[in-house]
Amino acid sequence: MIPQSHPEPWADLRELELPILSFSGPWFRIHLSKYDPLYFGFTGENRFTAPAQEYGTLYVGHDEYCAFIETFGQSTGINTVTSNWLSKRAISRISSLRSLRLVDLTGAGLAQIGADARLTTEVPHDVARRWALALWQHPSVPDGICYMESATGLGTTPHGSAQLYTIALIMPCDRF
Hints:
Layout: E1 20-23, E2 27-32, E3 57-61, H1 64-72, H2 83-87, E4 89-94, E5 100-105, H3 107-112, H4 118-121, H5 126-136, E6 144-148, E7 165-170
Parallel strand pairs: 5-6
Antiparallel strand pairs: 1-5, 2-4, 3-7, 6-7
């Protein structure tokens, strides 16, 4: 039996009250060291990037472990990272001047908007991108999305502490 894809964003999503979390950081990002850590990508390659480049997306982790897993742990079955690959990257600590309002795409937050975990784990990412666009267009104007890191499937750090949350901050930058 082939599993069904996650449903498209609901037509009345704009009328729902979004599950909003407030986060003040800091957050962590692993990036190519030749680039600024505050880069909002428009490539369309990642889970919550805009379908037609309507906005840019910056992915950060709530701690260093999450940033590491999100950067290096996306290829299942590969459990090594070369020193050459690491040497070209930096880890940055990112803060904002105010708390950011993030749509909660974990457990109860997903259920509140009629979604489920497939939204944050399903490949390909086409449906997730359309949901992200619908959330970006919501009248409550959230700053981004908070979701559970999906590479490990465990939701815990390698050292057994709190759950790993990835945050996709969504442009335009004038919201920050």
